[in-house]
Every structure is written in structure tokens, then in C-alpha cells.
Amino acid sequence: MADTTTAHEQRATNRGPGRLLIAVYIVFAIAATSRAGLQIATKFDEAPVAYLLSALAALIYIVAAVGLARAGHTGRRVALACCTVELVGVLGVGVLSIADKKLFPDETVWSDFGSGYGYVPLVLPVLGLFWLWRTRRDPA
User: Fold this and answer.
1) pLDDT score recorded for residue 4
2) Taking a C-beta distance cutoff of 8 angstroms, is the pair 38, 93 a contact?
3) Any transmembrane segments, and where (predicted)?
4) Residue 12, CA atoms < 13 Å, CB-side half-sphere
5) Separation in Å, CA 6 to CA 3, 12, 30, 40, 129
């Protein structure tokens, strides 16, 4: 029996579990934007690097959600870039925030590998990259 779904539908990043992934990115975009906005507006001079990193994380979450939701070639490339930068960021900031607490006088979204958010910031880019890999086109 032939499969009636198209190759595009099978590979779309915005279908099936991809919808949940997009929803989580949107929730984290809202959370990180709210946190960074409040911190930048009220106490920027206390830890500017930490607060700007939280704002960067928020921007990455927004752009990743849009990339995954678009599901086309450009959307996939955008999501891939965002998930990669996000993973490098959370690993880098995670290591630095544990190695030298003075570098981050206040927490960022990515501090301690996202411990303040239940480590979801560490797991999210891995899931995003896995989903992009899982929905890639077959090389044949």
C-alpha cells in the first residue's frame, strides 16, 4: 500500500513533535525576553554581560522558533544556525559560570547549563538539532 503523505510533509519541521518543540521555544523566548528586559531596565549596571547574554538567548529562541515553524529550506538553515549557536552558548556560559562565579555576578538563562530553568536550555538545542537531523531530506 502506498504512503499518501508527500515527502515535504514527512520532512517538515513544523509537524508532529516539531510543534511541541516550537511551543517550547516560544515559551522560552517569552521567559528569556521578560527576564532580560526586566534586568536590563532595572539593574543593568550590576551585571551587563549576564543580562545581555539573556537577551541574546531570548533572540536566539525567537529566531529558532520562527525557523522551525517555517519548515522550508531557509527555515531549516536558520533553525540549524540558532540551535548550534545556542548549544555552544549554553555549554560555554555553563562552563564559565561554574569555573569563575565572578564572571557572571547574576545568572543568565544559560548559567550553570540552564539550571535555573530545569536544564531545559541545555536539552533544547540538542532536541532541536536532533529534530532537524530526523526531518532532513534523504541524500538519495
Assistant:
1) 46
2) no
3) 20-38, 50-71, 78-96, 116-133
4) 14
5) 8, 10, 34, 47, 23
